[in-house]
Each structure stands twice: as structure tokens, then as C-alpha cells.
Design brief:
With about 575 residues, the protein is an alpha+beta fold. It has 21 helices and five strands. The chain has a five-stranded antiparallel sheet with strand order 1-2-3-5-4, with helices on both faces. Helix 15 runs antiparallel to helix 16 and helix 20 crosses helix 21.
Length: about 575
């Protein structure tokens, strides 16, 4: 009996669509604004929106730094059973979001004319870029807070709320774009104002959804101590730098296009960039859907679960890329017409399709190294994928005219040899030290090789529980455990599975781990469904469940937490019998 992918596949795919929608939430505002602006004001206005995107991405840099850093730290604390510390991470995240928004907004508004002139290379589009950027700076707070609420809703397993939050954002943006651009003719001021208002409404719903039901988190502000602040900045650095490198890439390629190809091709590049921004739904959505669970499984040293999660991301990512590529290639002509582009969009769409596939696979690896604490590797990959390789390839390919769009898949493809080069030194060093790591993911499989842990999946029916008991007995024998220790482990598993499945049903798979090392042995049980804590349950007379109460008395650690839509139970016993 081994761990299969059924449990994780279901849990991961529950996250996939809502998290992809959350990525769409930021991207779709640019797309909607671009469509309304191009139809109402022409190609120059569309180019101005595209030239303003680095400002939006810069705001997202600090939003991602705080929000994903706080969420990753909270997920790790919950994996360790430290729910109060996770609550503190959330409160610190809110305070830091407010501070960061002020730091962005005040100097941004004051220096906006200088920034707009720089983004437009001092050209005729500077005034239009200013209009869009000044409102972006002023409305930074809701843009940043959206990241925070999405990240913590995912940790809390409230995936439907994420979907509703994003749908509110999209619907409100369309409605207010019609009002501000079409009805009262505010131009670019109207387009960006519509996005800010939509983000604000979305944040209000996200806050209510997170805090109105049973949750691991409480609303409030908390000043982070040095360790917490360092953890947030460290874990948030990769997504933040990703946005920063995206902004740098956009600035550099905008300049290359303006200088080498002219303002007309800048409008074509704006349409191409909108499609590449849409591709971020897959490139970022696929790994972000796994991020919190992957972080928890890595912290718990459940390597089999980590490998399953990586495989699922690659399979689902490739399938989604194939669908996305087929759609944009087939509809390349309507895409050009939508943005009022006279030239053929077939070749750019082929380039974007290939770029999306290669970047998605690279992004999965980049996020994994961030999850696993190898932040240096992750950040170097982010810099290569998101700025240095694309900028260098674009500069070289610009001599080939409009064929320069080939820089996108070429630069993304080059990230794979970079991954092999970056992971070789730690792999070699670990091998030389006598504690080898796996070649690509750099996982430590020592406990698995020594049979100190076993991971397996079972159904909740009686036959599966009996088979699991036999496997537990074999595991205990292999670790020279006494009869008493074997009985404790078997009793704990059988009692808790029976209680949990009796309350939640027996249809779903259950992921389990048994371990025996460092003078302790025990179980970790993961079962999806509604929140249910067997340790706080009472029978009809108000007494604790007898079998569960007995387990509590025998164990050193006996805890339940509910995260990612899963009930997670940890039972730990001392190795010595008393």
C-alpha cells in the first residue's frame, strides 16, 4: 500500500480554477481596459495603457512581497501546529500592506509626471501615460490587499469565495469602464478608476468571506518582530522579484520596440503583451494553486506528496497550455481585429503559445524552490526567466523586424539548462557530505531509505483500514518497536479513522504517514471535507469519545487543525514505554 495521487489530485484541482481566476483578476483589468480604451480612443491610448503597466507591476511587487510572504509563513506555522503564530502572520500582513501602500502612493503621485515621461521615452504618449499612472499610484491599497485576501482564503480552504471575489472584480470593472469611459467620457482616467473601484469592492467581499465563517484568522493589526519580518520578506521575495523583473522586462522591451520598430509596432506589442499577460493565468496560476499545500508538505518532510504535487502541476500545466495555445492561434485574426491591429497576429500567437508552455514548467520549478526554502535558486531563476533572458533575446532578435516576437519562446526555453546548472552545486555538495539529495528537486530521502517513515493512502472502508493496520504492524516490526508501541499506533489509526469517516463519510481517499525516529513515533492523517475536530467532540451525554480520550491520554502530542479544506491530525508518542 503506497501513497497514490487521488487525494492530492482532488485537493490540488479544487484550488486550480479559483487561483487561476485570482491571477486573472489582475490581468483581466488590463485586458478590459485595453479593449475599452482601444475601441473608444484608438491605438495610441492602448499603447499608453501598455506603457503604464510597469507601474502596476511595481505596485504588485510590494503586494506580492508582503502577501505571499505572510501567507507562506502562515502555512508553514500551521503545518507545525502553531495556529496562533499563523494568526499573527495575517495581522502583520494587513499592517504591512497599509504601510507599503502609503510608501508607494505619496511619492508616486508626486513624481508621476517624471515617471510617465521616462516610460514613454519622452514621446507624445507621455501625457496619456501620466493619466493612467497617477490613479494607479493613488489607488495602490486595494490592489495590494487583493493579494493578501486571496492568499489567506486559499489557506483557509475557502476556494468558492476566491472565485466570487474575482468575479466581482471583473464584473465591476466592466460596469465602471462603461460608465466612466463610454457614458461620462473620462478617457484613461476613467479606465484606471474603474479598475481601482472594482478592486476595492473585491477586497471588501474577500475580507467578509475570510472572517465571517469559522476561520484560522482574526482581523487586526500586529507589528512584526524581527524574525517574523525576516520570514515574510524572505518567502515573499520570489513572487515580488518576479513582478519586479516583469516590470523591468516590460520597460526594456517597450524601449526596444519604440526605438527599433516605431510607435505603430508599439501598439502591436501592446496587443501581444495583453495576450502574454493572459497567459500568466496559467504560468502563475498552476504553481500558485499548489504553493500553500506544497509548502506544508515540504515542511512536514512528506517527499512522496511533494513529488505527486510536482507531477500534477506539470501534467495540468501542459494540458492547459495546449488548450490556450490552440485557442489563440485559431482566433489570431479576431484578436487583431479586437485591438484594431491591421497586421497578422498568427506568428505572434504561435510565439506566445510556445512561451506559455516553457514558462509554465519553469515557473513550477521556481515556485517549488521558494517553497523548499532554496530562495536563492528561486530568485536567480526568476531574474533569468522574467528579465535577463527575455531582454537579451529581444535585443538580439530586434534586428529581424517583426520576427523579434520569437524572443519569447527562445528565452523561456533557455531557463531549463539554467535549472540544471543551479541545482548541481547543492546536489554535488550533499553527495560529497554523505547525505545525498535527489538530483532535480534536492529532496532528502534519508528517512524513507531507512524505513523510518511510510506514506500511504487508504479508503475509509473497513477493509482498507484492516489492510492499513497490517502495514502499520510491518512498519513497527521493521523499526524494532515493542508490542505495546505497535498497539498504540494501530489503535490510534483505527480509532481516529473510524471516528473521522463516521462523521465525514467514507467516499474519499485519506492520506496517512507513520513515522518512528528521534525517540518518537506517531501518525499524521489528512482527510478532506468539512471541519471536524474529534478531540473536542462529545457524545450525547456530553462526554468525550472514549477511544479518542484514551489516545489523548497516551500521546505526547494530540492535535487537530483545519487548513486548505483538510482536517489534519497529528499524534505523537514517546518511543519509551512506561
Amino acid at each position: 500500500m503506497e501513497r497514490n495521487e487521488s487525494f492530492l489530485k482532488k485537493e490540488y484541482r479544487k484550488n486550480l480554477v479559483p487561483i487561476m481566476l485570482s491571477v486573472l483578476g489582475g490581468t483581466i483589468n488590463s485586458l478590459i481596459d485595453g479593449i475599452f480604451v482601444s475601441r473608444a480612443m484608438g491605438a495610441d491610448a492602448l499603447a499608453a495603457v501598455n506603457l503604464s503597466m510597469p507601474v502596476y507591476l511595481f505596485i504588485c511587487v510590494l503586494g506580492a512581497l508582503v502577501s505571499f510572504g505572510a501567507a507562506a509563513l502562515a502555512a508553514g506555522e500551521i503545518a507545525k501546529g502553531k495556529v496562533k503564530k499563523a494568526q499573527k502572520c495575517f495581522k502583520c500582513g494587513i499592517l504591512l500592506c497599509i504601510i507599503v501602500s502609503v510608501i508607494i502612493a505619496v511619492p508616486g503621485v508626486m513624481l508621476c509626471k517624471v515617471i510617465a515621461n521616462a516610460l514613454a521615452n519622452g514621446g507624445s504618449l507621455s501625457g496619456e501615460v501620466y493619466k493612467y499612472c497617477v490613479v494607479l499610484f493613488a489607488g495602490a491599497l486595494p490592489t495590494i490587499l487583493m493579494y493578501l485576501f486571496v492568499a489567506f482564503l486559499q489557506i483557509d480552504g475557502k476556494l468558492r469565495a476566491i472565485s466570487i471575489m474575482i468575479l466581482i472584480n471583473v464584473a465591476a470593472d466592466i460596469v465602471f469602464d462603461v460608465f466612466f469611459i463610454v457614458i461620462i467620457d473620462m478617457g484613461l482616467y476613467g479606465a484606471v478608476t474603474a479598475s481601482i473601484v472594482a478592486s476595492t469592492l473585491s477586497c471588501i467581499f474577500g475580507c467578509i468571506a475570510l472572517l465571517s465563517d469559522v476561520t484560522n484568522f482574526r482581523l487586526g493589526l500586529s507589528v512584526p518582530d524581527k524574525k517574523t519580518l525576516k520570514g515574510i520578506l524572505r518567502l515573499g521575495s520570489t513572487p515580488a522579484l518576479g513582478n519586479l523583473f516583469d516590470a523591468m522586462k516590460l520597460v526594456s522591451i517597450n524601449s526596444i520596440v519604440l526605438v527599433e520598430l516605431g510607435e505603430r509596432q508599439a501598439a502591436v506589442w501592446a496587443a501581444i503583451n495583453v495576450l502574454s499577460e493572459i497567459s500568466m493565468i496559467i504560468i502563475l496560476g498552476v504553481p500558485r494553486a499548489a504553493f500553500a499545500m506544497l509548502r506544508a508538505y515540504y515542511i512536514s518532510k512528506e517527499n512522496s506528496g511533494v513529488r505527486i504535487m510536482m507531477r500534477l502541476q506539470a501534467i495540468d500545466g501542459a494540458a492547459l497550455c495546449a488548450i490556450f495555445g490552440a485557442v489563440i492561434i485559431f482566433f489570431s485574426s479576431p484578436v487583431g481585429a479586437l485591438f484594431d491591429i491591421d497586421e497578422s497576429m498568427l506568428f505572434p500567437c504561435i510565439c506566445i503559445a510556445l512561451y506559455t508552455l516553457f514558462m509554465t514548467l519553469g515557473s513550477i520549478m521556481e515556485q517549488f524552490f521558494n517553497c523548499s526554502g532554496r530562495v536563492g535558486i528561486s530568485n536567480v531563476l526568476s531574474g533569468l526567466d522574467r528579465f535577463f533572458l527575455p531582454a537579451a533575446a529581444a535585443l538580439v532578435m530586434s534586428e529581424y523586424g517583426t520576427r523579434m516576437w520569437l524572443f519569447m519562446p527562445v528565452s523561456a526555453l533557455l531557463s531549463f539548462p539554467a535549472i540544471l546548472l543551479l541545482t548541481y552545486p547543492p546536489y554535488r555538495n550533499a553527495k560529497n557530505s554523505g547525505r545525498p539529495l535527489s538530483r532535480l528537486l534536492l529532496l532528502d530521502d534519508k528517512l524513507e531509505r531507512e524505513n523510518k517513515i511510510i506514506d500511504f493512502s487508504i479508503k475509509g472502508d473497513d477493509e482498507s483500514v484492516c489492510s492499513a493496520c497490517e502495514q502499520i504492524q510491518d512498519f513497527c516490526t521493521a523499526n524494532d518497536m515493542t508490542t505495546g508501541q505497535t498497539m498504540k499506533l494501530g489503535l490510534a489509526m483505527e480509532e481516529l479513522i473510524t471516528v473521522m469517516t463516521g462523521k465525514l463519510g467514507k467516499e474519499d481517499d485519506i492520506d496517512m504517514r507513520a513515522f518512528a525516529h528521534a525517540g518518537m513515533f506517531g501518525l499524521r492523517i489528512r482527510i478532506s471535507g468539512k471541519r471536524y475536530d474529534p478531540f473536542s467532540d462529545r457524545d450525547e451525554e456530553g462526554d468525550s469519545l472514549m477511544g479518542v480520550e484514551m489516545i489523548k491520554k497516551m500521546s505526547e502530542v494530540c492535535e487537530h487543525n483545519y487548513t486548505f479544506g483538510m482536517n489534519i491530525i497529528n499524534i505523537v508518542f514517546q518511543m519509551e514505554d512506561h
